[in-house]
Amino acid sequence: MSSPTAMNQPGDALCQQVRDRVEQCLALAGQRLGRDFPAPLVRFDQRGRIAGSAWLERGELRFNPVLLADNVADFLTEIVPHEVAHLVVFHCHGKVRPHGSEWRGVMREIFGLEPHTRHRLDTTRVAPTFSYGCGCRLHRLSLRRHNRIQRGKQQYLCIHCGKLLSLAPPTMRKIR
For residues 109-146, b (16+ Cβ closer than 10 Å) or e, as one string? Predict the structure, then answer.
């Protein structure tokens, strides 16, 4: 039986596609900027709702294996260039604002993409939410908040009516 971590890993071919796309993006940036960029370590261990992250000083890119497996095209066209752009900016300008003008310029001028700071991927599989009611509406709470309520560590109030939130009965859990 395979471990949970192994089950969340994308296949070798998919990992290689991402690595190849990282190389393509770096080569394009190098060609347009007239310089070489070091190849980063590419890992597939990002968790939660985050699709990818760039660890600048480490020269490392991390990608979420679950979101990758569910959204291959989005990763290859948007997520990989987004993260590579962070590395390119770091090598050209040092530490600057993560989604500042330098990063936006790389996204537009080098990769020909509109610079979005957040992805629009469905994160339901990696970050489930729970329906809670108050009397005036349903609220979606994260797994962390749900667990805090269930353990008796925290209570949350509706910002609209001020009533205590409680887990919605199964028949009311669909948000309209």
Answer: ebbeeebeeebebebeebeeebbbbbeeeebebeeebb
CB 110 within 8 A of CB 128: no
Six token digits for residue 42 = 């590419």
Tokens of 164: 């205590």
| 105/12 Cα distance (integer angstroms) | 32
Q: Is 27:39 a contact under the CB 8 Å cutoff?
A: no
Q: Which of 83, 102, 109, 114 is catalytic?
A: 83
pTM: 0.74
Helix count (H) and strand count (E) of the chain? 7, 6
Contact 40, 70 (CB under 8 A): no
Digit-coded pLDDT (tens) for 123-142: 888 878 889 999 899 998 98
What separation, in Å, do the N-terminal and C-terminal C-alpha atoms of the chain show?
Answer: 40
Q: Which two tokens stand for residue 78?
A: 């948007």
Task: Give tens-digit pLDDT for 56-92.
Answer: 999 999 999 999 999 999 999 999 999 999 999 999 9
Does residue 60 have an active-site annotation? Answer: no
CB hemisphere CA count around 130 (13 angstroms):
16
